[in-house]
Design a protein that fits this description.
The chain is an all-beta fold. It has a domain of 71 residues: Thrombin, subunit H (Beta Barrel). Helices cover 3% and strands 44% of the residues. A hairpin with a 3-residue loop joins β3 and β4.
Length: 385
Amino acid sequence: MSRCSNVVSSVAQSCMVLLTVLIGCHTTEPVQPQTHSGQVLWTYPAAAFGQPAADDSTVYFGTTAHELIAVQRGSGQRRWRAQTTPYGQRTMFGFNVLLVGNNVIFGDYVVTAFDRGSGSRRWTFDPEQQGLAGHGAGLYLLTSDGQHVFAGSGSGQGYAINASDGSALWVTTLATDGNSSVYDPVVDGETVYFVVRHFTNPITGSVAAVDRLTGAVKWMFAFPTEAPTGSGPLGRVVPYGGIVFVANDDGKIYALDKATGNPTFSIPRRTDVLGLDDVRALLLAGSTLVATSTADFVEGWDASSGTRKWELNTGQGAASNNYLATDGTTVFVTYINGSLAAIDVATGKLDWMKTSSQSPFYNFPLVQDTLILAPSQSALVAIRK
């Protein structure tokens, strides 16, 4: 399998397979609807993609036209617009925007940093152009510890990038078969966790704990193969106390010991899942582990014991992607039909639901203070929380 087809396969396995992205991005003036509590405050007309980022004055988001756009947080009026990477066969869409110092950082096959104030390009991290192992460092979620940006790849590598200038702090190869992707780093103290996915038949994979400053591998846990289901994780791990949670393709959720990577307990696959695999999104809100399922349910589990606290079927189908958002008391879920739901973490009750056939929601929103910033197929939508 070629490197290009590896990238395509990895993205096809990811959460975006269920929705077709509309290309094209028209940057006209934002629409200003009514501002009642819980309603839409403003929209910016562009096919938003990936989780936005925001500070006190500005919201930054990527688009399917391979742009990064900065708009005023209060009104949605555009401040600046910048091109991310050139159009071409290898160009993809980044999954989230990061703010690190004076940089706005976005992944779109490569990782690019822009000046927060002006939108001018500051640096680009492209392993292929910089003589480093691997490719596709901007394909999946990025994360930061405030000084470095951590990225996976479509080629088996994990990267630590200096946020100041885009140089590599370290490159760690976590798979050497030429048929694997490394996903969604999570920083937890002195450790960065990656998930590794091998495109075997069925899918296999592992979790890797890597030293944050050196890139040295502390441990790797390979998921047991239970054919015909897959055994490769897809989606970020969730640290909690002395364990990390990770969801496996077969529908099980594993709690791994942070020190050793050994399983401490597991949450079973739902019995009502149709088909072989059940790719589940995970998120921690307080002491509640929230998990989605292709069986249309969202569940809340006690993170200490693995005991289920509640489950909810909103009637909207399966969640549309591998990522959720929370403010600590409410979890926000996008569904395959384009709906956006707010679910109370303590009770599992539905707080509210927004649907739009003209502009379905997808990816996962940013929740900040009183604002929800939700990507949709034709706009970035600001909602009063």
